Amino acid sequence: MEIFDKKFKEIFSSQIVSIVGGLIAGTILAMYTDKIFLIPGILILLPGFLEMRGNISGSLAARLASGMYLGIVNPEKNTSRIVKGNVFASIILAIVVSFVLGLVTFFFNYLVFGIITLKILFIPVIAGALANLIEIPLTLFFTFYFFRKGYDPDDIMGPFVTSTGDITSILSLLIVVLLI
User: Any alpha helices (H) in the chain, and if so which ranges?
Assistant: First the structure.
């Protein structure tokens, strides 16, 4: 008799990946704190920006997994109209939410600190687009990969995209902050 079933192993291993990914993202953030503090209000932007990536990619993975279970998405041919539509919706959603985060941060900076920093509007949009270039292909690849290998993407992809989303978000935000 097996003590741990397949579902438990899938969920447990994905949670371990999520914890390690969070530690990596936190370590990267801690190493570059001095660069991040140079832009007023960036800490207002950071929680929403980090949360956005995992939520958008997580919902994309869930929609793809549901489509594969229902038989309307073929895991072998992932260029269908449904897949393209979901990817397009995820890209637009990330750009719009990034811009709204930039607006909220801009107005908060102005109202609380009396500082007008226009670049705070562009940082989340550029960083969000950069993170999307990495995160969406990762989400597509691993959702289809896990499904083809017989694993349940609904159990695995949530923690997986949260941790990879944190890492890609931190890296893309740091790249944009250093460039701007």
Answer: 6-31, 33-36, 42-70, 81-108, 119-148, 153-179
Does the pLDDT value for residue 60 go beyond 60? yes
What CATH number has the domain bearing residue 62? 1.10.357.20
Q: Cα separation of 101 and 90, whole Å? A: 16
Q: What is the pLDDT of residue 178?
A: 84
For the chain, what is the domain count? 1
Q: CB atoms < 10 A from the CB of 78, how many?
A: 17
Residue 83 lies in domain: 39-179
Q: Each residue of 96-146: pLDDT tens digit?
A: 999 999 999 999 989 988 888 888 889 999 999 999 999 999 999 999 998
DSSP for 125-150 reads HHHHHHHHHHHHHHHHHHHHHHHHTT
Neighbours of 158 (CB within 10 A): 21
